[in-house]
Write a structure and sequence with these properties.
By secondary structure, the protein is of the alpha+beta class. It has twelve helices and 23 strands. The protein has helices at 34-45, 58-62, 75-83, 87-91, 134-147, 193-197, 254-261, 265-276, 324-344, 352-380, 385-399, 402-412; strands at 17-18, 21-22, 27-30, 50-54, 70-74, 95-97, 99-106, 110-119, 129-133, 151-155, 159-163, 169-173, 178-181, 183-186, 202-218, 225-231, 234-241, 245-253, 283-285, 290-299, 303-304, 307-309, 315-316. It starts with 16 loop residues before the first strand and ends in a 16-residue tail after the last helix.
Protein backbone atom coordinates (compact mmCIF):
# COMPACT_ATOMS: atom_id res chain seq x y z
CA UNK A 1 0.00 0.00 0.00
CA UNK A 2 1.80 3.09 -1.21
CA UNK A 3 1.65 6.59 0.25
CA UNK A 4 0.59 7.81 3.63
CA UNK A 5 -2.18 5.39 4.42
CA UNK A 6 -3.75 4.66 7.75
CA UNK A 7 -4.71 1.00 7.98
CA UNK A 8 -8.06 -0.13 9.28
CA UNK A 9 -7.83 -1.54 12.78
CA UNK A 10 -9.77 -4.42 14.25
CA UNK A 11 -10.99 -4.70 17.81
CA UNK A 12 -8.21 -5.83 20.11
CA UNK A 13 -6.02 -4.57 22.92
CA UNK A 14 -3.33 -3.26 20.66
CA UNK A 15 -5.80 -1.13 18.71
CA UNK A 16 -7.41 0.34 21.77
CA UNK A 17 -7.29 3.97 22.81
CA UNK A 18 -4.23 4.76 24.82
CA UNK A 19 -5.27 7.74 26.89
CA UNK A 20 -7.38 9.69 24.42
CA UNK A 21 -5.34 8.86 21.31
CA UNK A 22 -6.10 6.05 18.92
CA UNK A 23 -2.91 4.78 17.36
CA UNK A 24 -2.55 4.90 13.60
CA UNK A 25 -0.41 1.77 13.57
CA UNK A 26 0.80 -0.92 15.91
CA UNK A 27 4.45 -0.68 14.92
CA UNK A 28 6.62 1.77 12.95
CA UNK A 29 9.57 0.24 11.09
CA UNK A 30 12.36 2.59 10.04
CA UNK A 31 14.26 1.38 6.98
CA UNK A 32 12.91 -0.42 3.94
CA UNK A 33 15.90 -2.61 3.10
CA UNK A 34 15.92 -6.40 3.23
CA UNK A 35 15.64 -6.53 7.02
CA UNK A 36 12.99 -3.82 7.22
CA UNK A 37 10.80 -5.44 4.56
CA UNK A 38 11.22 -8.91 6.08
CA UNK A 39 10.37 -7.57 9.53
CA UNK A 40 7.26 -5.80 8.22
CA UNK A 41 6.03 -8.93 6.45
CA UNK A 42 6.69 -11.21 9.44
CA UNK A 43 4.76 -8.85 11.74
CA UNK A 44 1.93 -8.43 9.24
CA UNK A 45 1.55 -12.22 9.12
CA UNK A 46 1.10 -12.15 12.89
CA UNK A 47 -1.71 -9.59 12.57
CA UNK A 48 0.11 -6.32 13.30
CA UNK A 49 -0.61 -3.12 11.40
CA UNK A 50 2.74 -1.74 10.29
CA UNK A 51 4.03 1.60 9.00
CA UNK A 52 7.21 1.14 6.94
CA UNK A 53 9.27 4.33 6.51
CA UNK A 54 12.06 4.46 3.92
CA UNK A 55 14.07 7.53 2.96
CA UNK A 56 14.75 6.39 -0.62
CA UNK A 57 12.11 6.54 -3.35
CA UNK A 58 10.52 3.24 -4.32
CA UNK A 59 11.94 3.47 -7.85
CA UNK A 60 15.53 3.70 -6.53
CA UNK A 61 15.20 0.60 -4.34
CA UNK A 62 13.52 -1.41 -7.11
CA UNK A 63 16.32 -0.78 -9.66
CA UNK A 64 18.26 -3.97 -10.47
CA UNK A 65 21.61 -2.20 -10.14
CA UNK A 66 20.78 -0.76 -6.70
CA UNK A 67 22.87 -3.33 -4.82
CA UNK A 68 25.32 -5.80 -6.31
CA UNK A 69 25.57 -8.18 -3.39
CA UNK A 70 24.41 -11.76 -3.19
CA UNK A 71 23.52 -13.62 -0.01
CA UNK A 72 24.04 -17.12 1.29
CA UNK A 73 20.70 -17.87 2.93
CA UNK A 74 21.00 -20.45 5.69
CA UNK A 75 18.47 -23.26 6.03
CA UNK A 76 16.79 -21.45 8.90
CA UNK A 77 16.52 -18.25 6.84
CA UNK A 78 14.87 -20.39 4.13
CA UNK A 79 12.48 -21.67 6.81
CA UNK A 80 11.51 -18.12 7.78
CA UNK A 81 10.81 -17.14 4.17
CA UNK A 82 8.78 -20.34 3.81
CA UNK A 83 6.75 -19.53 6.93
CA UNK A 84 5.73 -16.14 5.48
CA UNK A 85 4.98 -17.71 2.07
CA UNK A 86 7.85 -16.17 0.08
CA UNK A 87 10.20 -19.11 -0.36
CA UNK A 88 8.79 -20.42 -3.67
CA UNK A 89 9.48 -17.05 -5.35
CA UNK A 90 12.97 -16.81 -3.82
CA UNK A 91 13.84 -20.43 -4.62
CA UNK A 92 13.08 -19.91 -8.31
CA UNK A 93 16.03 -17.47 -8.51
CA UNK A 94 18.39 -19.23 -6.10
CA UNK A 95 21.35 -21.58 -6.36
CA UNK A 96 21.69 -24.40 -3.78
CA UNK A 97 25.06 -24.57 -2.02
CA UNK A 98 26.13 -28.22 -2.12
CA UNK A 99 29.76 -27.92 -1.00
CA UNK A 100 32.03 -25.40 0.67
CA UNK A 101 35.83 -25.48 0.26
CA UNK A 102 38.10 -23.23 2.33
CA UNK A 103 41.86 -22.91 1.96
CA UNK A 104 44.82 -20.58 2.32
CA UNK A 105 46.21 -18.99 -0.81
CA UNK A 106 48.39 -16.32 -2.36
CA UNK A 107 47.74 -14.40 -5.58
CA UNK A 108 49.28 -16.30 -8.48
CA UNK A 109 50.38 -19.36 -6.47
CA UNK A 110 47.11 -21.24 -6.11
CA UNK A 111 45.51 -22.69 -2.99
CA UNK A 112 47.23 -24.47 -0.15
CA UNK A 113 47.13 -28.32 -0.24
CA UNK A 114 45.28 -28.21 3.10
CA UNK A 115 41.60 -27.84 2.25
CA UNK A 116 38.65 -27.74 4.62
CA UNK A 117 35.68 -29.27 2.79
CA UNK A 118 32.01 -29.37 3.75
CA UNK A 119 29.52 -31.48 1.79
CA UNK A 120 25.74 -31.22 2.12
CA UNK A 121 25.59 -35.04 2.06
CA UNK A 122 26.95 -34.99 5.63
CA UNK A 123 23.66 -33.61 6.97
CA UNK A 124 20.09 -34.79 6.35
CA UNK A 125 18.47 -31.41 5.71
CA UNK A 126 19.49 -31.01 2.05
CA UNK A 127 21.66 -28.16 0.67
CA UNK A 128 23.68 -26.22 3.23
CA UNK A 129 22.13 -22.99 2.02
CA UNK A 130 21.02 -21.06 -1.03
CA UNK A 131 22.64 -18.20 -2.91
CA UNK A 132 20.31 -15.40 -3.99
CA UNK A 133 21.16 -12.09 -5.61
CA UNK A 134 20.02 -8.95 -3.83
CA UNK A 135 18.05 -7.75 -6.86
CA UNK A 136 15.84 -10.85 -6.90
CA UNK A 137 15.34 -11.09 -3.15
CA UNK A 138 14.51 -7.38 -3.00
CA UNK A 139 11.95 -7.77 -5.82
CA UNK A 140 10.16 -10.56 -3.96
CA UNK A 141 10.03 -8.56 -0.73
CA UNK A 142 8.87 -5.31 -2.34
CA UNK A 143 6.12 -7.09 -4.28
CA UNK A 144 4.91 -8.76 -1.08
CA UNK A 145 4.93 -5.42 0.75
CA UNK A 146 2.84 -3.81 -1.98
CA UNK A 147 0.32 -6.68 -1.83
CA UNK A 148 -0.16 -6.64 1.96
CA UNK A 149 -2.85 -4.21 3.13
CA UNK A 150 -1.59 -4.47 6.73
CA UNK A 151 1.54 -2.56 5.71
CA UNK A 152 1.45 1.17 4.97
CA UNK A 153 4.57 2.38 3.16
CA UNK A 154 6.07 5.86 3.32
CA UNK A 155 8.68 5.96 0.57
CA UNK A 156 10.97 8.96 0.18
CA UNK A 157 10.19 9.96 3.77
CA UNK A 158 12.64 10.73 6.58
CA UNK A 159 11.96 10.68 10.31
CA UNK A 160 13.20 13.94 11.79
CA UNK A 161 12.10 13.33 15.39
CA UNK A 162 10.88 10.48 17.58
CA UNK A 163 9.37 10.50 21.06
CA UNK A 164 9.23 7.28 23.04
CA UNK A 165 8.88 8.70 26.56
CA UNK A 166 5.38 7.63 27.44
CA UNK A 167 2.65 5.09 26.65
CA UNK A 168 3.02 5.63 22.89
CA UNK A 169 5.79 6.20 20.36
CA UNK A 170 5.61 9.02 17.83
CA UNK A 171 7.68 9.55 14.71
CA UNK A 172 7.58 12.89 12.91
CA UNK A 173 8.26 12.76 9.17
CA UNK A 174 9.98 15.50 7.19
CA UNK A 175 6.57 16.22 5.64
CA UNK A 176 5.26 17.17 9.08
CA UNK A 177 3.07 14.08 9.36
CA UNK A 178 3.19 12.37 12.75
CA UNK A 179 2.96 8.58 12.99
CA UNK A 180 1.89 6.95 16.24
CA UNK A 181 2.40 3.38 17.42
CA UNK A 182 3.32 1.31 20.45
CA UNK A 183 6.77 0.51 19.15
CA UNK A 184 9.45 1.75 16.73
CA UNK A 185 11.78 -0.84 15.17
CA UNK A 186 15.06 0.45 13.75
CA UNK A 187 16.12 -1.41 10.60
CA UNK A 188 18.09 1.56 9.33
CA UNK A 189 21.59 0.16 9.11
CA UNK A 190 24.95 0.54 10.81
CA UNK A 191 24.55 4.28 11.28
CA UNK A 192 21.04 3.88 12.65
CA UNK A 193 19.42 7.25 13.33
CA UNK A 194 16.72 5.39 15.28
CA UNK A 195 19.36 4.10 17.70
CA UNK A 196 20.98 7.54 17.98
CA UNK A 197 17.66 9.26 18.76
CA UNK A 198 16.99 6.58 21.41
CA UNK A 199 20.33 7.29 23.08
CA UNK A 200 21.82 3.91 22.17
CA UNK A 201 25.60 4.09 21.79
CA UNK A 202 27.77 1.89 19.58
CA UNK A 203 31.19 0.32 19.78
CA UNK A 204 33.42 -1.20 17.11
CA UNK A 205 36.22 -0.46 14.71
CA UNK A 206 37.15 -0.14 11.07
CA UNK A 207 38.99 -3.09 9.50
CA UNK A 208 40.91 -0.99 7.00
CA UNK A 209 39.48 -3.32 4.37
CA UNK A 210 37.01 -2.92 1.53
CA UNK A 211 34.94 -5.65 -0.12
CA UNK A 212 34.91 -5.58 -3.92
CA UNK A 213 31.73 -7.25 -5.13
CA UNK A 214 30.50 -8.26 -8.56
CA UNK A 215 29.05 -11.14 -10.58
CA UNK A 216 31.45 -13.18 -12.70
CA UNK A 217 30.65 -15.41 -15.69
CA UNK A 218 32.87 -18.46 -16.24
CA UNK A 219 33.34 -21.26 -18.78
CA UNK A 220 32.99 -24.33 -16.57
CA UNK A 221 30.12 -25.28 -14.24
CA UNK A 222 30.62 -24.61 -10.53
CA UNK A 223 28.53 -27.65 -9.43
CA UNK A 224 27.10 -25.67 -6.51
CA UNK A 225 30.48 -25.36 -4.76
CA UNK A 226 31.34 -22.24 -2.75
CA UNK A 227 35.03 -21.39 -2.33
CA UNK A 228 36.76 -19.30 0.30
CA UNK A 229 40.40 -18.43 -0.37
CA UNK A 230 42.18 -16.74 2.54
CA UNK A 231 44.62 -14.26 0.98
CA UNK A 232 47.11 -12.10 2.93
CA UNK A 233 45.03 -8.93 2.35
CA UNK A 234 41.71 -10.61 3.13
CA UNK A 235 39.47 -13.45 1.99
CA UNK A 236 38.17 -14.01 -1.52
CA UNK A 237 34.78 -15.73 -1.59
CA UNK A 238 33.60 -17.30 -4.86
CA UNK A 239 29.91 -18.07 -4.42
CA UNK A 240 27.81 -20.04 -6.95
CA UNK A 241 24.89 -18.39 -8.73
CA UNK A 242 22.43 -19.94 -11.22
CA UNK A 243 24.08 -20.87 -14.51
CA UNK A 244 27.81 -20.52 -15.11
CA UNK A 245 28.02 -17.47 -12.88
CA UNK A 246 29.28 -16.70 -9.41
CA UNK A 247 29.36 -13.79 -7.02
CA UNK A 248 32.71 -12.69 -5.65
CA UNK A 249 33.37 -10.94 -2.36
CA UNK A 250 36.99 -9.86 -2.75
CA UNK A 251 38.50 -8.27 0.35
CA UNK A 252 41.48 -5.95 -0.02
CA UNK A 253 43.15 -3.27 2.04
CA UNK A 254 41.16 -0.10 1.53
CA UNK A 255 43.80 1.83 -0.41
CA UNK A 256 44.47 -1.03 -2.81
CA UNK A 257 40.74 -1.72 -3.17
CA UNK A 258 40.17 1.88 -4.25
CA UNK A 259 42.93 1.50 -6.86
CA UNK A 260 41.44 -1.72 -8.21
CA UNK A 261 37.91 -0.33 -8.26
CA UNK A 262 39.13 2.65 -10.31
CA UNK A 263 40.55 0.40 -13.06
CA UNK A 264 38.83 -0.38 -16.34
CA UNK A 265 36.89 -3.63 -16.55
CA UNK A 266 39.85 -5.27 -18.30
CA UNK A 267 42.26 -3.98 -15.66
CA UNK A 268 39.95 -5.21 -12.90
CA UNK A 269 39.89 -8.71 -14.38
CA UNK A 270 43.67 -8.72 -14.75
CA UNK A 271 43.96 -8.04 -11.02
CA UNK A 272 41.35 -10.68 -10.20
CA UNK A 273 42.66 -13.59 -12.33
CA UNK A 274 45.78 -14.42 -10.23
CA UNK A 275 43.54 -14.57 -7.16
CA UNK A 276 40.58 -16.34 -8.77
CA UNK A 277 42.61 -18.99 -10.61
CA UNK A 278 41.61 -20.92 -13.72
CA UNK A 279 39.65 -23.83 -12.21
CA UNK A 280 36.42 -22.46 -13.75
CA UNK A 281 38.01 -21.58 -17.08
CA UNK A 282 38.00 -18.11 -18.59
CA UNK A 283 36.18 -15.44 -16.56
CA UNK A 284 34.40 -12.22 -17.48
CA UNK A 285 32.34 -9.57 -15.73
CA UNK A 286 28.59 -10.25 -15.62
CA UNK A 287 27.32 -7.04 -14.06
CA UNK A 288 28.16 -3.79 -12.32
CA UNK A 289 31.10 -3.62 -9.90
CA UNK A 290 30.48 -2.47 -6.33
CA UNK A 291 32.59 -1.79 -3.25
CA UNK A 292 31.69 -1.74 0.44
CA UNK A 293 33.87 -0.59 3.37
CA UNK A 294 34.19 -3.18 6.14
CA UNK A 295 33.85 -2.51 9.84
CA UNK A 296 32.55 -4.02 13.04
CA UNK A 297 29.79 -2.20 14.88
CA UNK A 298 27.72 -3.33 17.85
CA UNK A 299 24.95 -1.41 19.56
CA UNK A 300 25.43 -1.33 23.33
CA UNK A 301 21.77 -2.29 23.67
CA UNK A 302 19.28 -3.87 21.27
CA UNK A 303 16.34 -2.07 22.82
CA UNK A 304 15.29 1.11 24.62
CA UNK A 305 11.97 2.63 25.67
CA UNK A 306 9.54 1.62 22.87
CA UNK A 307 12.47 1.01 20.50
CA UNK A 308 13.97 -2.24 19.21
CA UNK A 309 16.95 -2.58 16.86
CA UNK A 310 17.24 -5.27 14.20
CA UNK A 311 19.95 -6.34 11.75
CA UNK A 312 22.77 -3.91 11.01
CA UNK A 313 21.14 -1.31 13.26
CA UNK A 314 22.00 -3.66 16.14
CA UNK A 315 25.12 -5.38 14.78
CA UNK A 316 27.32 -5.23 11.69
CA UNK A 317 30.00 -7.91 11.26
CA UNK A 318 32.69 -8.88 8.76
CA UNK A 319 31.21 -10.71 5.73
CA UNK A 320 33.76 -13.56 5.68
CA UNK A 321 31.29 -16.01 7.26
CA UNK A 322 28.38 -14.85 5.10
CA UNK A 323 26.15 -14.48 8.17
CA UNK A 324 25.15 -10.79 8.08
CA UNK A 325 21.69 -11.17 6.56
CA UNK A 326 21.11 -14.47 8.34
CA UNK A 327 21.81 -12.80 11.69
CA UNK A 328 19.29 -10.07 10.82
CA UNK A 329 16.65 -12.67 9.93
CA UNK A 330 17.30 -14.39 13.27
CA UNK A 331 16.62 -11.04 14.96
CA UNK A 332 13.38 -10.73 13.01
CA UNK A 333 12.22 -14.23 13.94
CA UNK A 334 12.98 -13.71 17.63
CA UNK A 335 11.46 -10.22 17.86
CA UNK A 336 8.33 -11.23 15.95
CA UNK A 337 7.76 -14.16 18.30
CA UNK A 338 8.30 -12.03 21.42
CA UNK A 339 5.91 -9.31 20.20
CA UNK A 340 3.25 -11.73 18.95
CA UNK A 341 3.09 -13.72 22.17
CA UNK A 342 3.06 -10.52 24.24
CA UNK A 343 0.21 -9.10 22.15
CA UNK A 344 -1.81 -12.32 22.53
CA UNK A 345 -1.37 -12.16 26.28
CA UNK A 346 -2.69 -8.60 26.30
CA UNK A 347 0.66 -7.06 27.26
CA UNK A 348 1.86 -3.67 26.11
CA UNK A 349 4.38 -5.11 23.66
CA UNK A 350 6.31 -1.83 23.39
CA UNK A 351 7.25 -1.85 27.06
CA UNK A 352 10.95 -2.19 27.87
CA UNK A 353 10.55 -5.39 29.90
CA UNK A 354 8.97 -7.09 26.87
CA UNK A 355 11.71 -5.85 24.53
CA UNK A 356 14.42 -7.03 26.90
CA UNK A 357 13.23 -10.60 26.26
CA UNK A 358 14.28 -10.09 22.64
CA UNK A 359 17.64 -8.64 23.68
CA UNK A 360 18.27 -11.57 26.03
CA UNK A 361 17.46 -14.04 23.25
CA UNK A 362 19.72 -12.52 20.61
CA UNK A 363 22.57 -10.57 22.18
CA UNK A 364 24.83 -13.46 23.25
CA UNK A 365 24.54 -15.14 19.84
CA UNK A 366 25.39 -11.88 18.08
CA UNK A 367 28.38 -11.10 20.30
CA UNK A 368 29.69 -14.62 19.70
CA UNK A 369 29.30 -14.20 15.92
CA UNK A 370 31.10 -10.84 16.03
CA UNK A 371 33.96 -12.29 18.09
CA UNK A 372 34.38 -15.33 15.83
CA UNK A 373 34.35 -13.35 12.56
CA UNK A 374 36.73 -10.74 14.00
CA UNK A 375 39.14 -13.43 15.22
CA UNK A 376 39.06 -15.32 11.93
CA UNK A 377 39.68 -12.14 9.95
CA UNK A 378 42.73 -11.29 12.08
CA UNK A 379 43.99 -14.88 11.97
CA UNK A 380 43.69 -15.30 8.19
CA UNK A 381 44.19 -11.77 6.78
CA UNK A 382 47.97 -11.78 7.06
CA UNK A 383 51.04 -13.42 5.58
CA UNK A 384 52.73 -14.50 8.79
CA UNK A 385 54.57 -17.77 8.04
CA UNK A 386 53.99 -19.35 11.44
CA UNK A 387 50.31 -18.49 11.41
CA UNK A 388 49.99 -19.84 7.85
CA UNK A 389 51.47 -23.16 8.91
CA UNK A 390 49.29 -23.32 12.00
CA UNK A 391 46.02 -22.52 10.23
CA UNK A 392 46.81 -24.89 7.32
CA UNK A 393 47.45 -27.73 9.75
CA UNK A 394 44.32 -26.75 11.68
CA UNK A 395 42.14 -26.90 8.58
CA UNK A 396 43.65 -30.26 7.64
CA UNK A 397 43.02 -31.60 11.16
CA UNK A 398 39.37 -30.46 11.21
CA UNK A 399 38.84 -31.88 7.72
CA UNK A 400 39.89 -35.30 9.01
CA UNK A 401 37.19 -35.31 11.72
CA UNK A 402 33.71 -36.05 10.25
CA UNK A 403 31.89 -35.33 13.51
CA UNK A 404 33.46 -31.89 13.82
CA UNK A 405 32.70 -31.14 10.17
CA UNK A 406 29.03 -32.07 10.63
CA UNK A 407 28.79 -29.83 13.70
CA UNK A 408 30.29 -26.91 11.80
CA UNK A 409 27.93 -27.49 8.84
CA UNK A 410 24.90 -27.50 11.14
CA UNK A 411 26.17 -24.33 12.83
CA UNK A 412 26.62 -22.55 9.48
CA UNK A 413 23.18 -23.71 8.38
CA UNK A 414 21.68 -22.10 11.49
CA UNK A 415 20.35 -25.40 12.84
CA UNK A 416 21.75 -25.12 16.37
CA UNK A 417 20.64 -23.23 19.46
CA UNK A 418 17.24 -22.05 20.68
CA UNK A 419 15.45 -21.39 17.40
CA UNK A 420 12.36 -19.17 17.14
CA UNK A 421 9.38 -20.81 15.49
CA UNK A 422 9.76 -18.92 12.21
CA UNK A 423 13.30 -20.30 11.84
CA UNK A 424 11.81 -23.76 12.19
CA UNK A 425 9.43 -22.97 9.35
CA UNK A 426 6.43 -22.81 11.72
CA UNK A 427 3.99 -19.91 11.99
CA UNK A 428 3.76 -18.33 15.44
Amino acid sequence: MQGSVTATHGQSYRHAHIGRMKLKHDIIIVGGGLNGCSQALALAHSGFEVALVESLPARTRAAHDFDGRSYALSLTSKNLLQAIYLWDQVYAQSQPILEIKATDGRPGTGPSPFVLEFDHAEIEEGPMGYMIEDRFLRDVLLDAIDADDRISTFNGATIVAQDTQGPIATATLDSGEVLTAQLIIGCDGRKSATATRAGVKRSGWDYGQTALVCAIAHERPHHGVAHQFFMPAGPLAILPLPGNRCSIVWTEETKNAARIQSLSDDGYLEELRPRFGDFLGEISLAGTRFSYPLNLTLADRFCADRVALVGDAAHGVHPLAGQGLNAGLKDIAALTEILTLAMRRGEDFGRIDVLERYQQWRRFDVITLAAVTDTFNKLFSNDNSLLRIGRDLGMGFVNALPGVRRSLIREAAGLTGDLPQLLQGRPI
